[in-house]
């Protein structure tokens, strides 16, 4: 029995050593997943293959995409401040979505469609540049304000995701314009300004949905910082064997997501994977772990994922409202105004930075939310 155990341990160690070598070899190319596609791979490399039990077709309900829809909310942005009746209705719709699935889409949000389209194209232009141009930005130094990479948790996660990413820290201290790639510089700053304004408005509505004064979450500095992440999901030769982005929740206050027409985003709701179908001109809003923590579980941070696809590239742009990359020491815990004798704090206090560091250390796709480690 001892000899058998030793053999098993030795075999596991060999497999783990081989996997680490494969990860490093992929990382060293600095070409990302698109580099594999450009090399015309016909099979998904081993580091991207997900276990059979995690294959999306085996974890999806066949009825999920037809019977449940993520709500699409008309923000009536131009009239939101003066139309009291409409605002009350919008707040109620946001409350219901936030308390149930933690996901909703918004239209008439104030950002012109040409800005949305150009932001998608800007991300495309960057990722489709020659490798020699892109690799200038390739790094695993997460203190930088501009980062090109593939899988931030490449060495922590159990499986690599079929996607590359371009990351910008935009607020509260924006980068020097010359730090951004020229092919997407102007649109990134423009989109960032628009999405920051929308973020402030959403925080007001979320505050009111919690029964708080409209400026409550803003005064807690929930929109003090934001970053922009441009994902590029190349067409995959074996989409049934891998995943675009493995299931996870976001470690921020909330995320505003711009996605193209291809689709593939799913959210876990009532143990079913629900397709978040692209809506022309819409933005997806999903709540993050920190908002669930400070709302004391009143609002939900839902798990979501992105499927790999034969069709591509799929492009999306996520704007994360978070301060983890800034030297802020603001401590967050359940909001006192939401507590009562019958509702005690469910979470320990933490800074956003400490929470995100813990989240990154765990990596994506571990099955258990990092938020659970902060429960009392």
Give a description of the structure.
With 376 residues, the chain is an alpha+beta fold. The chain has one domain: Jelly Rolls (Sandwich). It is 33% helix and 18% strand. The strands form 3 sheets. Strands 1-2-10-7-12-5-4-3 form an 8-stranded mixed beta sheet. A 4-stranded antiparallel beta sheet has the order 6-11-8-9, with no helix packed on it. Strands 13-14 form a two-stranded antiparallel sheet. It is globular and about 60 Å long. It comes from Clitoria ternatea (Butterfly pea). Its cofactor is Fe cation. InterPro entries: DIOX_N, IPNS-like_FE2OG_OXY, IPNS-like_sf, Oxoglu/Fe-dep_dioxygenase_dom.
Helix-strand layout with pairing:
Elements: H1 2-29, H2 32-38, H3 56-59, H4 64-67, E1 72-74, H5 84-100, E2 103-107, H6 113-127, H7 131-134, E3 146-149, E4 164-171, H8 185-209, H9 216-219, E5 226-233, E6 245-248, E7 254-259, E8 265-269, E9 272-275, E10 283-287, H10 289-294, E11 304-306, E12 314-321, E13 331-332, E14 350-351, H11 352-362
Parallel strand pairs: 1-2
Antiparallel strand pairs: 2-10, 3-4, 4-5, 5-12, 6-11, 7-10, 7-12, 8-9, 8-11, 13-14
Helix pairs in contact: 5-8, 6-8
Give the key terms.
single chain, 376 residues, alpha+beta, 33% helix
Instruction: Provide the succession of SSEs.
Output: HHHHEHEHHEEHHEEEEEEHEEEEH
User: Share of helix among residues?
Assistant: 25-40%
- Helical stretch tally: 11
**Alpha-beta content class:** alpha+beta
Largest sheet: 8 strands, mixed
